[in-house]
Amino acid sequence: MSDFFTAEDSGPVRVRMPGEPPLGAPSEASVQLELRRLPARLKDCSAPQLSLNAARSDRHAPGLKRLQLLCANGQQDIVSVRMERYAWRQSTPQPLASGTPLAPARLTPVLTPLGKLRGNGFESAAALSGFEVRRRLRAGEVITRNSVRAIPLVNFGDTVTYQVSGTGFSMQRSARALEAGGLDERIRIELAPGDWVRARVIGPRRVAP
């Protein structure tokens, strides 16, 4: 429990009642708690507060905790709470085909349960600049590292400039790309027939060691 609430990226803790929309805004980092199996007599609970002193594990569902719930009108009970860390991640409001560049106009932030997210998502639209869709994305799908790829700046067979720099010198020579690659990706290039090395893509048809 203490680890969950003291995590560096947790931010303020908010309690969301059943049926309520997400709390906060994309610019606000927070932990939100989802209440489950809320007793019928507490459906009208307002200004809910949770007491961590009453916390204990739910033996039937390790992902649940039992906490003391106190309402503004004095109602209180022990309730089952599913603890889940939420954060704003980028998603696509419309389906996107493979190869589609990810421009900000095609993205929207959604409050995402990180425990259910397969792979890391993207906090901002700017972080997806220079990427394209690797596979078809469904409307509303959260974009992860596995679903995008860097837009190729070098294609197979391209003649590229191999740039080597050091203290007091800079050298360039032509080479042939043996693989395609996006910004900062490492690809194989052929310096001469049978002589190839790996290089990092630094720009359109430009690579460096």
Explain this structure to me?
This protein has 209 residues and is an all-beta fold. The chain has one helix at 2-6; strands at 13-16, 31-36, 49-57, 64-70, 76-84, 86-91, 108-113, 131-133, 148-150, 159-166, 169-177, 186-192, 195-203, 206-208. Helices cover 2% and strands 43% of the residues. The strands form four sheets. A five-stranded mixed sheet has the order 1-2-5-4-3, with no helix packed on it. The protein starts with a helix and ends with a strand.
Q: Oligomeric state of the chains?
A: single chain
- Major sheet attributes: 5 strands, mixed
Helix content: under 10%
Q: In percent terms, what proportion of residues is strand?
A: 35-45%
The total count of helices amounts to: 1
Low confidence ranges: 1-10, 57-62
Strand order of the largest sheet: 1-2-5-4-3
Global structural class? mainly beta
Mean pLDDT: 79
What is the general shape? elongated
Alpha carbon gyration radius: 25 Å
Layout of helices and strands, plus pairs?
Layout: H1 2-6, E1 13-16, E2 31-36, E3 49-57, E4 64-70, E5 76-84, E6 86-91, E7 108-113, E8 131-133, E9 148-150, E10 159-166, E11 169-177, E12 186-192, E13 195-203, E14 206-208
Parallel strand pairs: 1-2, 10-14
Antiparallel strand pairs: 2-5, 3-4, 4-5, 6-7, 8-9, 10-11, 11-12, 12-13, 13-14
What is this entry, summarized?
By secondary structure, the protein is mainly beta. It has one helix spanning 2-6, and strands spanning 13-16, 31-36, 49-57, 64-70, 76-84, 86-91, 108-113, 131-133, 148-150, 159-166, 169-177, 186-192, 195-203, 206-208.
